[in-house]
Amino acid sequence: MLPFFAELITRTDEDRRAFETHPTVVDAVANGMSVSRYRALLLELYHVVWHFNPVSAAAASRMGDPAQDALQPIRHFLYEHMHEEMGHETWVLNDLEAIGVTPADARAHAPSAFTLALTGYNHWCAERRHPASVLGMLYALEVIASVYGGPFAAAIRESLLLEGDRGVSFIASHASLDAQHMAELRQVMNRLNGDDALAAVVESVRVNFHHFTRILESV
Fold it and tell me: How many CA atoms lie within 13 A of 128 on its CB side?
């Protein structure tokens, strides 16, 4: 049998490729975005990032306390990860302010149906589907950030004539941060057992890639 993480990659490779070869993604990485499209994307991204820790907390609350519980290491991993991610939505607000959107306007922005679908699915999975599904959310979003964040930030910086990380601090920083997170995620996933956990994580990866692609399409 393949290790859990290797099995996950094998079973979701088509979904990752569908994301990375989508014309909207290819164009954004190659050419950046107009300021209006980038504003729209960051406004949606604010809600995605804001819900990251609440989803993780909901999943952790469904994982058992006893030392013999197979999900206990995942719960401890989530605690540490939530601490690292705390306040990252303010980075998105800072980037929005750099391109002309006030924090008040950003917070008042109503998320699109696609963002609601993404965050709603992840909350539902954490509460009702299987708490390990949160690892699928982490995997999909960290693949997007670590693999495509750097080129996308560079393209945005060039297309909008931004200086340094001003306006792209969230995306640029997560391009390097999430490479380390991916290594940690691989270790913790390989401690999972059971077909139900694997099925939940695989489904979560597929749905997160799908909905995030729809978010990019819509801006």
Answer: 5
Q: How far is residue 86's CA from residue 74's CA, in Å, rounded to a whole number?
A: 18
For residue 9, give both structure tokens: 């990659």
- Residue 140 sits at φ, ψ, to 5 deg, of -60, -50
- 53-105 tens-digit pLDDT: 999 999 999 887 655 567 888 888 899 889 888 888 999 999 999 999 999 99
Q: Which residue has the tokens 């695989």?
A: 202
Q: Could you count the other beta carbons within 10 Å of the beta carbon of residue 15?
A: 18
Taking Cα atoms as reference points, which of 141, 55, 153, 140 lies closest to residue 95? 153
Phi/psi-derived region of residue 101, left when phi > 0, alpha when psi is between -120 and 50, beta in every other case: beta
Contact call for residues 212 and 18 (beta carbons, < 8 A): no
Q: How many domains does the chain have?
A: 1
The per-residue DSSP string of 161-180 comes to T--TTTTTHHHHHHHHHHHH
8 A C-beta contact, residue 196 and residue 125: no
Q: What is the CATH number of the domain that holds 135?
A: 1.20.910.10
